[in-house]
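Two proteins, back to back. First:
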Amino acid sequence: MITLSKVGVSGRLDAINLVVNKAQHWHILGQNGAGKSTLLQIMAGLALPQHGRCLLSGTPISDYNLAHLARFRAFHGQQQVHSFAIPAGQYIDFYGAGKGAHPLPAVLTEALELKPLLSRPVTRLSGGEQQRVNLARALWQVWTAIEAGEALLVLDEPMQGLDIRHQLTFLTFLQQLCQQGNSTIISSHDLTLSARFASHAMLLNGGQQVASGTISQVFTAENLKMGYGIAFDITNNQNTLQIHPQWPPVLS
């Protein structure tokens, strides 16, 4: 679905190669400033690489009209600003333009536990509650494509501000969407959750591609030390990786 060939941005990314296929669930990992947000913006068609190419279904993503992209590509950024105290339900509905009077689907409302939030002003919600509303907004925008199994979901730190229960619920929901044929690319800072839920991962460090591929290929002690500059203990518990930084950390 997406192919990156030697994608580079001066001071941010250097010769990134990546292939994201339909129905895959990718997690982009790395320290703060590793280049994750820049990479996601390029894959969402919101920024252009200075070097290399980003292809979407074989076509340069820059050839797509943004209005056309918005029909099947959802993007969730790290920073969201709410200037008006409108009810959360109205805020979400605005991004569902063209859906008329269709209500939010129950599966989306339940996955993000939106029901108690919809009548409340977005400016009166907690940070985690606002995050759930913003994620709903991003998905609702492309819900027709999601139902058809043709959506591309690009989400920058979607778990930021969510408590552990909502993180698990949302990641399970994303897995289900991928099983229906949709493709998901998110950035993440929780290595154990990424190892549990992602089908594939890419690890960046200083704009350099440390490793990419399946979870078993990426989540090795050597790769993680190269990506984060500290050592990790990796154990397998009932076919689920548990990843813990060694304490006290020994900086490389």
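And the second protein:
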Amino acid sequence: MQVEFDEDTCIGMFQCVAEWDAFTEDKSKGKAILEDSEEVEDGVFAREVPEDAELDAKFAARTCPVDAITIYDDDGEQLVP
């Protein structure tokens, strides 16, 4: 499972931070940060989701009010949102 996070879309509500510890707050930017990720496009960050964190990652994506977080299965099919 893979997660993509669009930092430019993020509005800094930090609901994802409460759901999954891979997200942290960057109060200076007013944005969340996806830890241990790499930039795959301009402003879009991605990383693998560990098996034991899959549910947390899905909750983080579902709670994002602006759909800045997308979850994909191993075949690249979009799961959330």
